[in-house]
Amino acid sequence: MSNPASRKSFFPQQIGLYLFVVPAVIAVSVFAYAPAISAIYHSFFEWSGNNAKTFVGAGNFQRLASDRVFWTSFATVGVLVVANVFKLIPSIFIAVMIHRVKHAGLQYFYRVLVVVPMIVPTLVTLFVWKGFLDTNLGALNRFLEATGLMDLLCRLDAFFHWNIFHAGQSPAWLGEPALILPALILWGFPWLGAVGVLVYLAGLQSIGEEIYEAADLDGVNGWQKFYHIELPLILTQVRVTLTLLIIGTLQGFGLQLLLLGENGGPGGRGMVPGLWMYNRAFFASEFGYACAIGVVIFAVILVLTLLNNRFVRARP
């Protein structure tokens, strides 16, 4: 049984800490929870963004069930999620290599090199890639022509009948429907995420030296150290980055909007759920329908996050 006197003394001592938390709680409620609740509420209305709205119940969600663009956009973002999972691999390997550098100064230098690209604004990076993928002046087509890979692609095209790559013509990576998805996957090459590298490094540095010493005594090579020691012990960090990746990929649409426009490029091949939500809200003034799309995106993210937390765990 608790002592009433101890309870009385607890609250006066801790009341200051609770007061410091109050502003953060208010800010999160106003700028995060309130908009989310408003979106759920308005998803049941036919609403154009003004004060007038008509209750339609589950009508917006029933409309989603037959929305071909919506389901196609989810297929596209599914491919991007799988591709982005594989894009985690370079960050993991770079983190392991930096961790294995014994010289402290050199290890710090490599960490700085990884972090420096974070200084460049994301918008600048997107514009650089838009120029990189340009049909006439883009570096990608010039690289393919200089290395002879363009001729190889033309021969593969002739063999598989893609009808995409033609001799003497520069492929339109953002203008040819069949090339839009490969261009989106190629974006960010060599797929070295600075935040991911730092997160993995933090996990690797928590591994005790005695574990490596025992592995050396057993004659374990570098690959075996990675597979049996390092990778299993940083799965917690992998789970965190996977969660952020899933959320970012399913919610994000800035890349597609800048590179392809609000319609997702020719044939809508670059359309993703976030961009379709943006399109319906700000170009069709169907804010209620856009809210319904947002609710579905939230539900999908929640399910995938729970699955990720359930199956990606550090092994003892």
Question: What's the short story on this structure?
Answer:
The chain has 316 residues and is mostly helical. It is built from 16 helices and 2 strands. The model has no long low-confidence stretch (mean pLDDT 86).
Describe the protein.
By secondary structure, this protein is mostly helical. It has 2 domains: 68-135 and 174-311, MetI-like fold (Orthogonal Bundle), CATH 1.10.3720; 136-171, no CATH class. The chain has 16 helices and 2 strands. The chain has helices spanning 4-42, 59-65, 68-86, 88-100, 104-115, 122-132, 139-147, 149-160, 177-186, 194-205, 209-217, 222-233, 235-251, 254-260, 273-282, 287-311; strands at 45-47, 53-55. A two-stranded antiparallel ribbon has the order 1-2. The longest helix has 39 residues, at 4-42. The radius of gyration is 25 Å and the shape is globular. It starts with a helix and ends in a 5-residue tail after the last helix.
Find the CATH topology of the largest domain.
Answer: MetI-like fold
Please report the total strand number as a whole number: 2
* SS field, number of helical segments: 16
CATH architecture of the largest domain: Orthogonal Bundle
Total tally of structural domains: 2
Q: Please state how the strands of the largest beta sheet are arranged side by side.
A: 1-2
| Helical proportion, percent range | over 70%
Structural class: mainly alpha
Strand content: under 5%
Overall average residue pLDDT: 86
* CATH homologous superfamily heading of the largest domain: MetI-like
Tell me about the largest β-sheet.
Answer: 2 strands, antiparallel
- Tell me the name of the CATH class of the largest domain: Mainly Alpha
State the low-pLDDT regions, or none: none
User: How does the overall form come out from the CA principal axes?
Assistant: globular
